[in-house]
Amino acid sequence: MKGRTRSPAIRRALDRARAAGYRVEFLPEPVALLPGTGCVLPPMGHCDYTNRVIRVATGTDRRPYSREMIAAILEHEVEHAEGARVASSRPEFGLFCGNHGEAA
């Protein structure tokens, strides 16, 4: 994501990620999050505990995600970074924690 965002929710989530010791990368498509994994449904976000990086997709090859959806994905991944095994799901955005839509 280029430049400063006007979304207070994204800014708050970025601050939480930094406080947890993570950096955040915004990527153009979900398939870029976990290349080569063979996921049928690639995740919208990923918390890499080893490298302390949160990766968030900003859209698909068909359309960009709304700021609200990007904020929801980022907040979900920050919950994982803060230690939650199961983070909040946001069904209105198609965001579920667990195995591609199955609640963990």
Shape: globular
Taking the alpha carbons of the first and last residues, their distance comes to: 29 Å
> What is the level 1 CATH name?
Alpha Beta
What do we call the CATH topology?
A: Zincin-like
Beta-strand fraction estimate: 5-15%
Largest sheet: 3 strands, mixed
What is the level-2 CATH architecture name? 2-Layer Sandwich
| Mean pLDDT across residues | 83
Succession of helices and strands = HEEEH
Number of domains: 1
> What is the strand tally?
3
Class based on secondary structure composition and strand pairing? alpha+beta
Number of helices: 2
User: What radius of gyration results from the CA coordinates?
Assistant: 13 Å
Low-confidence stretches: 99-104
Main-sheet strand order equals 1-3-2
- Helix proportion range: 25-40%
